[in-house]
Model the fold of this input.
Amino acid sequence: MNPTETDDLLARVTTALGEAQTVAEHHAAGTGFRDGATKVIRMVQAAITPPEPEDPRPQCGSCQRRRTFRDEAHPMDAYDYNPMQVLTGQPLGWYSGDDGQVCPECMTKMIRG
Ligand SMILES: [Zn+2]
Done:
């Protein structure tokens, strides 16, 4: 675990413990100590479980498909979109811009209908 991860973990545990204290106080005053304790344990467990690593592959904003690499089902994923493909009638590549990502299939639907 590197220092950044340790800081992140500490921050998450501290937040969870703060929330847990509120829940514990609420439950201690009300329905039962065990409910409160169970919630506290779940919150702390959630806080110390590292978050799922994000999938780094670009994702199509239209169909949510991830860009593939050497996948026969999506050969055009290997190519970037460029306007020449439209002008010359070639298959379209993967669009990647400041305004988002669009897979070749969705790009073809948008441009060629
Ligand atoms: Zn798509």
